[in-house]
Amino acid sequence: MTIFWTEDATLLAAILATLLPFVSFVLIMVLTRARPRLSAGLSIVAVTVSLGCALFLLVRHWNLQRPIQYTGRWLASTSVEIPFGFLLDPVSLLMLVVVAGICFLVQVYSLGYMAGDYGFSRYYAFMSLFAWAMLNLTLSPTILQLYIFWELVGLSSYLLIGFWYEKFSATQAGKKAFVMTRAGDVAFFLGLLTVLVHLGNFNILEMNGPQAVAHMSPAILTLSALLVFGGIVGKSAQFPLMTWLPDAMEGPTPVSALLHSATMVAAGVYLFARLFPFFSLSPTAMTVFLAIGTISMLLASTMAMVDRDIKKVWAYSTISQLGFMIMALAAGGYFAGAFHLTTHAGFKALLFLCSGLFIHCHGTNDIYELANHQCRRQRIPTICLLIAAAALSGLPPLSGFFSKEAIMAALAGLSNPVWLAAGLLGVFMTAYYAFRVIFVISFPKPPAKGSESRPDSSASGHDGSHLPPEYCVMAWPLIILALITVLLGFFESPLKHFLVGRLIAGEAHESGALALVPYLALALSVAGVGLAWIEFGRRGAARVGFVERIPPLHKLFAERWYIDDFYRLFVDRVIDRGISTLFYENDNKVIDGGIDGMCKGTVEGGRIVALLNSGMIQYRLLVTFAVMVLLSLYFFF
Amino acid sequence: MIVPFSHVLMLAGILFLLGMFCAVARRNLIMIVLGVEIMLNAASIAFVGASVRWQSLEGQSFVLFILAVAATEVSVGLAIIVYAFRRTGSFDPGAYNILR
Amino acid sequence: MTLYSFIFYVVAAVIVASTAVAITRRNLVHAVIYLIFSFFGTAMLFYLLGAPLLAVLEVIIYAGAIMVLFLFILMMIRTESHQELMFPLSQWLPAALFGLIYVGVGFLTVATTPGTEITLKMVLATPREFALYVFQRQWFSVEIVSLLLLVALMGALHLGKGEKKNNGEDEV
Question: Domain B27-91 is of which CATH architecture?
């Protein structure tokens, strides 16, 4: 660091924000495993300081003109130099605040949710590890440093998904998540290497600047963009690597809220926004990204329409919303994608935390059973859930409405109308599945003939009036997030100016049909809500979705479009029986066989030479003759 | 004019090969010594041819010495063979592997 | 093709043929006799190449003394020659292989060495000139060879002395 770090408040804030969670991780793992309250305290203090520094940085550099970069020498060779450090520019500062804020709120919430769990200290240690990795990922100046922290984030996700490791399904889910994201990361690393070979270094500013075009041909640009996007497909659970995210709901709900909705899976979209100028250099790649985002968005929405597990519905919703963000970014809407990232972090975390409160109080994940437990008696979570679902569907005046409109405007700017049509269909399906959950939970089935009655469910012990003692500490983060969801939409203009103020001049009003797009999207959202009301919310409704009336379609959606089955088949046939067997046989027959053959050959050769020395004089004469012949050969040539 | 010098050398080479073959491929001690004799004879032919080629008498004088050495070596060799035959009762070199 | 070259090729063919036959005879006496033919051919070759003394010496010493010595030994030690294992594979196959390589390389060497295509001219070294040359120029070698012959004589006598007297008196 050329500048002495305590004198520069920005650098100090950046170091504190990123390093303190790591310190807390080490302290918890080494020293305070036996004292859960101290561990939680350490972790929350660290995250609070990080949040404070992040807010300080955001406010201080609100009018940032050029990115600030702090780097120190790390790896240096004659032709390549890779530094480490921090890069502060608008999108990274915004993401820093989002990550730190959600981490803080989720850790406070976990005080209540994970209370009494025997792995409490370990949980907070892994939470700190994740916070450290994610914060550093946000501020990385080189794509290699970003990749390192990308992998660390994947590691902490694995540790947290399999947190309750005695449950076999949890460990399987952790393994599946890690392996699938790893598959994407292989492509990411190949893309990194392509960039290194052609550009000469890993700096993000250089990749976004004119040097990229100068050093890399269009074909190489497309290739590296596609490869790096492979990592995004893995991390952000897009098609085809999308099935790990629903299984990742085996982890505790705060983990799902933090990692698998707001921050970790958003790291992929963040990378896209980071390298947005680099990716925009290759229109072919952008079209591919658009297609992948659209497919993921539509597939995940269909899967969400039929699931009964509340966490899995929100998981599919996450995949779908990430698809939306990628569509927006791939269509050229930099601000739309980044803004939706921010608002989505807010309302998706809120959705998960509210669901977590219900799950904690009533002990079941199924929406029909939750309804039977009269969970709508608990006012605060129900209202917050309603606000969050409305934001997800894009209803005004919540933040989701503003960000969805921005995305639709970006999609409308494309020449091919099929993307806009897909986006509108997605809006409709999003509203439908979100409010399906709301109505099913809020309006329990009227009691059937004597099988269940009100006194029965109220005597189950999990009534609304018997609140568990940790209810307060779990409710405060919900209220804060709900407030943010409501208010964030009105900050759209200042944020737009902050992120892209210098770049984009005032946009001309779209003419003709394109001006109708916002109203069309709003109409579709309301139509989705209406359809859900008709099917689930009305008194005396059948409570069966229109998809469930078509059994083949229902089966297709419920089986996740058979993607998992395809993977199982692929792993079994191609990898296990094909490639693994091939390499196993190669190891046994070729490599071991070769070495054994060499040994045997040596022994046999020794035997033959021993035979020559067995005292038979004619063999010795023969050897003499042979040597003479070979010498003559040598002298001839 | 007789023949090119190379033909004489080739003849000597073929004879040498035949002598080497006899020494190595027959399982009889006496044939080994016979093979050595053939090889020496081949060398003599080469020397005489060389002496004609270079018009010098050195080659022929060396053949004289080869003759003497051949006689020496045959007598001593056959004496050894007779002695060995008395000891082991066989002419087969495969029987003489006590020193293996 | 002059007369002399014709004679050379015929004599060469005789030598090679009789040697080849000699080395494949199971009966050792037959082999020795064929070899005597070969040596006679060599003697004629020497005479053709201008060394009459050597030709005669070849007949007397080589064919006359050495081969007869072989015959004496064969007759003295009556061995059943059909006991011999003729040309075992492990011996003749490597020998043939290396032999062919040797012949090939030898021929190539001879063909590519620059001085070998010169045709030999007829010369004659009379015994008088030859003897003068040997005893004037190579007298030291003559002395050494005579020493060698003495050593061989002593060796043969010692080896041929046999064991204790109770063995009988049928040694050479």
Answer: Orthogonal Bundle (1.10)
